[in-house]
Specification:
2 domains; single chain; ten-stranded mixed beta sheet; Creatine Kinase, Chain A, domain 2; globular; 36% helix; Ubiquitin-like (UB roll); alpha+beta; six-stranded mixed beta sheet
Amino acid sequence: MVGKKTPIGRDSVSEQKSKILERVKKEEISFIDLMFSDLSGQLKCVTISPRELENCLEDGKWFDGSSVEGFTRIHESDMLLIPDSTTYIMLPWPRHGKNAARIICDVFEPNKIPYEGAPRNILRRISETSEAKGWFYKVGPEIEFFLFGSKEEGDYYDRASYFDFSPRDLGIDIRAVIVSTLEGLGIQVGMTHHECGPSQHEIDIEYSNVLTSADNIMVAKQAIKTVASNIDLYASFMPKPRTGVAGSGMHTHQSIFNNNRKNLFHDDDDPYQLSTLAYHFMGGQLEYIREMSAILCPTVNSYKRLGGFEAPVYICWGQRNRSALIRVPRYGKNRQESARLELRCPDPSCNPYITFAVMLAAGMKGIDKKIEPPEPVEEDVFDFDDAKLAQFYIKSMPSDLGEALDEFEQSKFIKDCLGEQAFNKYLGLKRAEWSEFKRSVTDWERMYYIDL
């Protein structure tokens, strides 16, 4: 039976550690995965035995940071993984017939100072700044993905479409297994369904505080891939894996609450039921969205998703308008806690820790500077010509990763948010990716130019 998460904040650190040691013994755990993220958003892991756990909880676990993308250089490689004891949970799949557990870790330098370039540390720093102002940021991500028959062929598993049901939707049983697995990992699922594209699916993760949500995305992607692999399928979070079909996004619903769990985005007297604070938060995100683009849409492939099948490319907002970058979802009467903004441009290839960090930081900038958003647009912006876009002062997202990186590189806001070390390393990684792509010869080029 899968264990439940230890409630955050209810026990002292020493009590949490004692409970983990007790549970490891009771649950007959043989392997403990110490998980963390690199700068690109890849989940990394060091596995230890239960006999090492007590020392690890006290002193951390040494690892080679120079071998992790975006971390330290070879002459300063020693780093520490410090387990976050609130994230212990028994994994729902045994390993060679033996039980395994996982703990998510923070990355520290040898002197036990948090490593400023670690993605989870960046998000924690930004969220603590927000909470010091009385703003508790919560998000609910919608994770889209494809299930293919194989990684190499990219062949569809089914030909169903949006909201289709069994038997046309062959993935309904697979999604049931995924949901059960996620629930066993302590991740609450709000809704799941077939998406627009063939073999495309969506899993909506329920609202949580921002650090927990980022952890949940990292674990959910691993779980979805594991479930698919166990039945000889391949789960892909590539934003646009096939031409001519919908791409995969990670629409993110977001609100700010106060200490008393009151939603600070709600105002009954506003036509959109949004507070002044919500409008300023939105204004900040729209103001800095081009500078954030290289983080929210971090790959060459990300920009082939934007602009088609309702994936937003125009910087505007609305309520009914699903072509808008930020949408204000409707909610039921007396559901003030549901007031939220839906940012629709992030995709599932992003690193959720730094994605949520810059989203929150941009919103806070908007609140602090009282940035007003433009007027809402309730028409389909994809039908606008250049004159109408100019009439509404609507700008566009970057057209490719190169343009996004130019915006990123000039951004003081992004550098302040990430810290200089992570900023420079991320820029270097992505510049290398863009340069490699520009030198590559694609199938499209061969098809059109081979006979020249």
